[in-house]
Each structure stands twice: as C-alpha cells, then as structure tokens.
Specification:
The protein is α/β, with parallel strands linked by helices and about 160 residues long. It is about 45% helix and about 15% strand. It has a five-stranded parallel beta sheet with strand order 3-2-1-4-5, with helices on both faces. It is globular, with a radius of gyration of 17 Å. The mean pLDDT is about 90.
C-alpha cells in the first residue's frame, strides 16, 4: 500500500520539489496550494511525469478552509502518514523597524504560525493514529541553532 503525504505550499519552490521527490519514491501526494490555478498547474506537471498527485485548495489563513481540508483528508485519505507544512510567506521583515506596519506582521504570523498551528491541530490525531510525522518547514530566522552559533545574527528589523 502506498504511503500518503500532504504538502502545503506545494505549487512552487521547495514545496513543489518535496512533492516531486516524494512522488518519485512512490508516495501518493496531496498537493496543497492557495491558488487553484497554480495548484492545478503543478499537479498537471507532476502527473505528466507519472507521479500520483492530487490537488487540494487550502488557505491556511482561514480557519473554515483548514477545517474543510482536514475533514476531507480524514474522509478520503485515512491512511495519511506525513504532513509537510511548507506554506509560508516572507512578510515585511525586510523593512526597517520604523517602516514595518503591524498589519504586515499580523499577516505573516497568520500564515507562518497560526495557519500551521491550526492545520497541525486538526490533522495531528490522524497522523498520530497512523504513526506518522509532521514536518514544519522554516527559515534561518526561526533557527535556535543559528541564533546561538552563527557568526552574525539575523535582524528582522535592520
């Protein structure tokens, strides 16, 4: 039986590559993306390579969408073994502190923290029952090792 993985933010970049590599080693991949058009394009490209990939639209900023996706996955993919939270956004951290707007920070936290938290909460029981794994993709800015051992520190507010 094939293992099933759900990868968010998988229509491009790292998420797309993760979905591709999982498919290449025989996983069934549920490719999650906010944009229907970009998600379907990514699935078409991977399916053309013979990979077992299906698209699901997910917007991690909307609790109701997360609940709908989680319910659909529980119903249609009860064997889900792997959740890779790759959906994210850089936010406005490249601006200086004095130019950063609170709204931009809230938007970034909504996607990068709360969206991931909510999706994990909704799918954790299924992943746990299947003795699976949750992977949260992040950046150097969230690395405790980097903060403690780097020759320079990342400053979100230069």
């Amino acid at each position: 039986m094939k293992k099933t993985a759900f990868v968010t933010g998988a229509n491009k970049g790292i998420g797309f590559e993760i979905a591709k590599q999982l498919g290449e080693i025989g996983w069934k991949v549920i490719l999650g993306a906010r944009s229907i058009e970009r998600g379907q394009t990514a699935v078409s490209e991977l399916a053309a390579q013979g990979l077992d990939v299906e698209f699901v639209q997910v917007d991690v900023t909307v609790l109701e969408k997360i609940e709908q996706v989680a319910d659909m996955i529980k119903k249609n993919y009860p064997d889900l073994k792997l959740l890779i939270n790759n959906a994210g956004m850089p936010g406005a951290f490249s601006r200086s502190f004095t130019e950063t707007r609170e709204e931009d920070l809230r938007n970034a936290f909504e996607v990068n923290f709360f969206g991931t938290f909510r999706l994990n909460q909704h799918l954790f029981p299924l992943i746990k029952d299947n003795e699976g794994t949750i992977v949260n993709v992040s950046t150097d800015m969230a690395s405790l090792d980097h903060m403690q051992n780097a020759k320079f520190t990342l400053n979100a507010f230069d």
